[in-house]
Amino acid sequence: MNKELRELLDKINNKKAEAKKAYDAGNLELGNQLKDEALALKKEFDGRVALDSIDEPAGSPLPKPTANPKARSSAEIVRAFLKGDRTSDDIVNNLVIPSSEEDENGIALIIPQDIQNEIREMRRFYRSMRDLLNPYPTITLSGTYPIDDPDDPQDLIDFDDGAAISEMKDPKFKPVSYNIHMRGGLLPISRLLQQVAPASFIQYLGRWWNKKAIRTENKVIFKKLKDAKSGEVISISTLDSIKTVLNTKLDAALIDVRIVVNQDSYNYLDCLKDENGRPLINPDPMQPDRMLFKGSYPIEKFPNSQLKTETNKAPVLIGDFTEVGDFVELDGGLQIATSEHANFTKNQNLMRCVTGNDVTIKDKNAFVWCEVDVSTLSTLLATVAQKAVVAPEGEGAQDDENENADGKAKKSK
Q1: What count of other Cβ atoms lies within 10 Å of the Cβ of residue 257?
Q2: pTM of the entire predicted model
């Protein structure tokens, strides 16, 4: 595909994107106009492709087959590219499609495969556990802030009209300390790579840093939560055991109780049924993309790689995590910067990512750390299936007994 066709294809895709935005904004007239322009460009594109296909006159002799040259390795291709070779087929192909070789650093995967030369990143949704905690921004690397003592049971005092009102005791506060941990990294980027890569390359790297930051934050948060409940893990296996935790192990005053699971524990809970054979996890009618447990408790699912299952024990965290802890973050959040001078002698740019944060535990009693033994799931499902088969017979026998009792009562009358 020549340069003109590539540019024409870019125009078509741009028109399509603009038309979609117009339709989404409710501007039907503009959307229809842009759609017609995109169709006109497509006709021109198809016509040019057809012209290219008839460049060779009919009856022209076919080129003689030639022996395939020895394929060059990625290292040899890079060396040839740096020496100025921009026309060899293997170099051109490696600039626009991934190499078939295993690349230790995955550099071949950075260069796009599609005609538009745009990066299509892996669209994996990274859920952040920090969103469930209470945010606490700061400008200092360490410090202490007070919170209400959850163990302060002080109530208002009764008094008679006209009588003196008794003084209350001083409110109790609990100090919470934080110590910001700085985290970050450097990524060298070849200036030659930036020249051949699209403009969206740097934007992609920014999203890549953001994903790494979320994974790191989740790892730190889950470790803090697990350490807070060391030696206090509750084993659950049935619907009744989960009900017991929800009804008795958490303060009834908590208003935003959520259930945090990984893939294994989610699957376990999703296989459980109530007494009528209905699943316990269902979509939220108001937010179809959110799942609810028993129609009341939002489910927050994380990958096993971040919230780990250990020796068949999958974690289930239940509580109001805004009351559990704070996510303390240094002002500015995730900071990404690029320098053109740091690696000047290597003809490279350096991209830097820096962030500073800490996780504090305010009230560890606002959540419980439970575990389910996923190795028992098959046995549990078999038991449930057996009950489902036996139940109708039992119900029928009970109905017969009731009918017999009713018949005897009528005869006695």
Answers
A1: 20
A2: 0.63
Among positive and negative, which fits the CA dihedral 359, 325, 297, 259? Answer: positive
Q: Give the contacts of 232 (CB within 8 A, at least 6 positions apart).
A: 368, 369
Three-class secondary structure of residue 288 per DSSP: coil
pLDDT at 389 over 60: no
Does residue 15 surpass a pLDDT of 90? no
For the segment 68-87, the average pLDDT, to the nearest whole number, is 54
Burial of 319 (0-12, 13-18, 19+ CB in 10 A): buried
What's the rounded Cα separation, in Å, for the pair 141 and 145? 13
Count how many Cα atoms sit within 13 Å of the Cα of residue 174 in the half-sphere of its side chain.
11
Q: Is the pLDDT of residue 67 over 80?
A: no
* CA dist., res. 313 & res. 370, Å (int): 9
Do 411 and 403 touch, CB atoms closer than 8 A?
no
As a whole number of angstroms, the distance between CA 41 and CA 17 comes to 14
Residue 281 burial (10 A CB sphere; 0-12, 13-18, 19+): buried
Q: Which of 176, 181, 260 is nearest to 213 (CA)?
A: 181
DSSP character at residue 277: S
Per DSSP, the three-state class of 276 is: coil
- CA 327, chain centre distance (Å): 18
State both tokens at 235. 């084993």
From the list 175, 132, 143, the residue with the least C-alpha distance to 366 is 132
Q: What is the pLDDT of residues 308-324, one digit of tens each?
A: 999 999 999 999 999 99
CA angle 246, 250, 255 (to 5 degrees): 90
How long is the chain? Answer: 413
Residue 197: exposure state from Cβ atoms within 10 A (0-12, 13-18, ≥19) = buried
Six-digit token string for 245: 């935790």
For residue 289, which amino acid is it? Answer: D
Reported in sequence order, the residue ranges of 158-253 that DSSP labels E, i.e. its strands, are 173-179, 181-190, 234-235
Q: What is the DSSP code string of 52-113? A: HHT-SPTTPPPPPP-PPPPPPPHHHHHHHHHTT----HHHHHHHHS--SS--TT-GGGTS--
Eight-state DSSP code of residue 203: H
Measured CA angle at 348 (ends 342, 353), to 5 deg: 60
Tokens of 6: 């590539």
According to DSSP, the β-strands at 281-283 and 348-361 are unpaired
